[in-house]
């Protein structure tokens, strides 16, 4: 899509430090890394959101991310753990509206905090069953 | 695996509020939700880490998570966005050592904070190219 940085990278029209590319997806270094070694996995076909994403492209993005995670652990970079993270929608922190999965190397004391909503207690089984019924696929 | 809560759920031997199950994966409500509607997608076969996970099971976990995300947006629960999140390793915040992908409904003002490492600046292209070369698949 015109004006989309990930479409431009996919087309070879914008610079990127590529870790992987195949017909369906590419992986490149994030230019705003949270930790050293922060990689993005991006489906080539433009999809602004999960709702627009071809499920098979999504499945492949996960395959690539799993391989990148393995590579990070073997890279010699400081990587004692890995987070996979995807933001779908502005309320979830999405900033570039072409789906992308973050692969984040983690280490003890890196100060990356994921802070839960305050005051949200543990629901009982009945409440969970009610929610499950509403969400059943 | 004996003593693993997700293996017990998969075998029907521990309670769970199921959203989905198929031959490869299941989805259930998290009993320690961060937001209302917090779902976990779990491969049935025990894998403590991404390194142990069958890549095709991983790809399927993502397919299920994408469908759960769509369901959350249509559920009537407050869901203006969705995060997918996976913690691999203790340093990444993993607490249950059977791979699971979180599907988190998000909304404006929910106060879920993801706080980057302080003082980690934007690297230049040369630094990113060097990292990409180390991580190339």
Could you provide a short overview of the structure?
The structure is a homodimer of 137-residue chains. Chain A has 137 residues and is of the alpha+beta class.
Question: Can you describe what's shown?
Answer:
Chain A has helices spanning 5-10, 55-74, 125-135, and strands spanning 18-21, 25-29, 39-43, 81-88, 101-106, 113-115. The first copy, chain A, is of the alpha+beta class and 137 residues long. In chain A, strands 1-2-3-5-4 form a five-stranded antiparallel sheet, covered by helices on one side. Chain A is globular. The model of chain A has no long low-confidence stretch (mean pLDDT 92). The interface between A and B is large, with 79 and 79 residues.
Describe the oligomeric state of these chains in a short phrase.
homodimer
- Strand order, biggest sheet of chain A? 1-2-3-5-4
- What is the name of the CATH superfamily of chain A? HIT-like
Number of strands of chain A: 6
Q: What integer value in Å does the Rg of chain A equal?
A: 17 Å
Q: How large is the share of residues in beta strands of chain A? A: 15-25%
Helix content of chain A: 25-40%
User: Under the CATH scheme, which class of chain A?
Assistant: Alpha Beta
* Number of separate helices of chain A: 3
Question: Which stretches of chain A of 5+ consecutive residues score pLDDT under 50?
Answer: none
- CATH topology type of chain A: HIT family, subunit A
Q: What is the CA–CA distance across the termini of chain A?
A: 31 Å
How many structural domains can be distinguished in the coordinates of chain A? 1
Mean pLDDT of chain A: 92
| Most extensive contact | A-B, 79 and 79 residues
What is the H/E order of chain A?
Answer: HEEEHEEEH
Q: Helix/strand/pairing class of chain A, anyone?
A: alpha+beta
């Amino acid at each position: 899509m015109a004006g989309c940085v990930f479409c431009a990278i996919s087309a070879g029209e914008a610079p990127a430090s590529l870790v992987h590319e195949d017909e369906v997806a590419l992986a490149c270094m994030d230019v705003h890394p949270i930790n050293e070694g922060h990689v993005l996995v991006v489906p080539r076909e433009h999809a602004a959101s999960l709702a627009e994403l071809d499920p098979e492209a999504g499945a492949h993005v996960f395959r690539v991310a799993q391989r990148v995670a393995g590579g990070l652990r073997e890279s010699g970079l400081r990587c004692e753990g890995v987070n996979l993270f995807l933001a779908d929608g502005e309320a979830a922190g999405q900033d570039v509206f072409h789906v992308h999965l973050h692969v984040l190397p983690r280490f003890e004391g890196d100060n990356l905090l994921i802070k839960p909503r305050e005051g949200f207690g543990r629901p009982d089984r009945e409440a969970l069953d009610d929610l499950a019924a509403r969400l059943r696929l």
